């Protein structure tokens, strides 16, 4: 017995003497981050690659969206902000709201996060003017909304606002600004403010980033790899977030004695998902590959465990990835869409029935299923179904479920209703059996023939899917005498002609979206129809405008949801956009090397920075 | 000679000015500008885009932008990158240049040396099976679709056989705790290479001509090469940086091998044709008539003259070393000047693109001057009269 104990003791000593093997989460990225400076990274250098490896990992916000449901929850805050109070200062009406900050949260250097850091962050954004900082900063400190932020005590701040903001400006804007450490940035900010060009000096500053999350900056070997190392002082380690079937969320952190849960709905029964914060790995290495082939080989060989790509992996790699049983392929819905729009300042595009007819003719299901072989999925609403809370499933989808003949019949009826006629009208003999004769020479309600026009669409080199759609749309339009010609060109030409010049008839592009659907306002409100605005088509409907404005000003989720649904109904009826399709984001990871708490999430794992704080290393 | 160089320099400046102007206007002719990149974010308003355009000087008329750009180029200030605002363009070029130069200079030297040796050999054995086989192999690789060849090489030697690193220029596991950056090591490697070349030039130019015997000259040359190489290895070893340099060299094997495979054929054919012309010369026949060994006739009489076009071609190629190669840098994840150029052009980063172009242009023009001077100096049939090269009679 004694010799066994001795042997065990010796074995334990030997094992203890072995060097600890670091658990590394090795990933591939395709572009190098460009800066460690958050003011530049979220400003003019706002690239997805910067967000993956730097500010998306290092910083936290007062409130955020908890993946995978993206419920709005406190992060650095203790609870929801207090209701707005009206105050008058020097004859000016301001609105105030107080936010309490969690205690016991430490920066990577060990110092506590306090109200000073929060006040410093917002006052810095105001001092430099968020519009001049550029990039995403204006939405975090919109100078038309935010007046100032004051410290109430070490763990509470008061926001002073110039107007009562809606969810877009408040919960999904100002309250989601990354909080920076005053100690790190104060000297930099003071130097910048004293310089000739404050913004440039601030954004040029080389600062080792402060961090409050699971990881802090490790090493950047330019051109080759970037490394973040585990933050041993992370106050979020062990924090548990529970997601309930009714949409409720509960957050518990025994380290900082923090508990919070949604009240409407309140948690009921057992959670669907329980996510415990790490980090569970010692470091995250982002290896920079310049081509997908190399990254795929690296994944197959086990050199990397996951590949970052905002667009997902190309479908052509799927077969190759399936050859390795240790590679798991996952697919998720994206939060975006590819669409077709019209210049509604011109005839006949300003006639709703014309737009409805074009929408009716487009058979998304046929193109995505039969032509594109399932690479894309059909989509018909400006809020994709993947963004479940905000998507209105009841809106009109023109031509839904119709045969070709039925579509032609419906489109002809719509055009006739608006007063259009033909030199030779299309004749549908049996709509269900697709028995019809194409038409020719569409004539405007005023008796003038519709002049040939062009639809700008991306060339196959940029997006073969949209190019394919464009050619089919051209064919379907010409079948009923609409003289549409698809012009396949590069993205920049389309973008310049659409937004900077507004010199187009129709164009086809795509959007990636945020969770909160304020894009409804920016894309379609008449105030956004000027040169450079996002309402390039010039859609103008005063009734819709009122709904969009109310959506932007809505102060509760329920109210905002109702308005978003109503706005979607307007857009489905008026068809300023014909939403066409989107592609699922395909990703792959090594299941023998890492384990994620979940893999089903809108936008894929890349959308949540590859889950570095909750991924577990298997070896 | 000085007048000749002076004239060439004036021509070079004019060429450079035309080149920079054409480059500038081609870039400007692309639709859109850097603010187009922000049209995909609905939360970035038109006002923010306008502010960005103002900060970057894109709101000025084109002629003012052009004059500003020329002033910057000729005062050595390449401006600030748009996409990495406000990082200076110089910083980016200095960061990426050493990687490019080390890789492409090495690949050029290797491919030219192999091409020269093989060209000399097959010309001497013209019509033999070896001649046909080598020429066929050289031409096959020379005309191969390079990106595909690169991927095949990577798949075969790195992925399937596992003999070589898969991609990139360093291994993260080696460099995680390195006391200096990879760029520092690249710079040291370049410095080492420069000193080595200087030693060889000095030795070959000053010491060797003073040695009377052939064996003495061979021994001295061997001493120069061997001594230089040994000194280099010793320095790296004692500095503690050898493992980092070796890691880079290890990652260079595959791209250098691929580049050499593709390039050696051109040099080989050039050398072969040049040799075939030279061996018909009277002085080669005279050397044979004197009963000199075949090898001596080939290497010391025919090849010395035949190498002139190869040296000119090499000098011109070295000028392009700084421009890197987009395909090589992409396939092997070796981000250098080539990829910088591509990205800058793609993202409308005019200052970075024109800065990189200017840099490349200056080097290429300088390489042309060097090639002209070398040719004039080395070819005994040429004379410089009144600043112009004429054939000697």
TrEMBL record, chain A:
The protein's name in its UniProt record: ABC transporter substrate-binding protein
Key word Signal present: yes
Stored SUPFAM superfamilies: Periplasmic binding protein-like II (SSF53850)
Record domain Solute-binding protein family: where: 73-524
Any Pfam family the entry gives: SBP_bac_5
Organism this protein belongs to: Geochorda subterranea
Keywords for this protein: Signal
InterPro entries: Peptide/Ni-bd, SBP_5, SBP_5_dom
Leader sequence segment: 1-22
Transmembrane segments: none
Keyword NADP: no
Automatic annotation (TrEMBL), chain B:
Main location: membrane
Keywords tagged on the record: Cell membrane, Membrane, Transmembrane, Transmembrane helix, Transport
Highest taxon, organism lineage: Bacteria
Record's subcellular location: Cell membrane
Membrane protein topology class: Multi-pass membrane protein
Chain ranges passing through the membrane: 7-27, 101-123, 144-166, 186-206, 218-237, 249-271, 306-332, 352-374
Pfam families linked: BPD_transp_1, BPD_transp_1_N
Every ABC transmembrane type-1 domain range: 97-375
Family annotation (InterPro entries): BPD_transp_1_N (IPR045621), MetI-like (IPR000515)
Family membership noted in the UniProt record: Belongs to the binding-protein-dependent transport system permease family.
Protein name: ABC transporter permease
Origin organism lineage: Bacteria, Bacillati, Bacillota, Limnochordia, Limnochordales
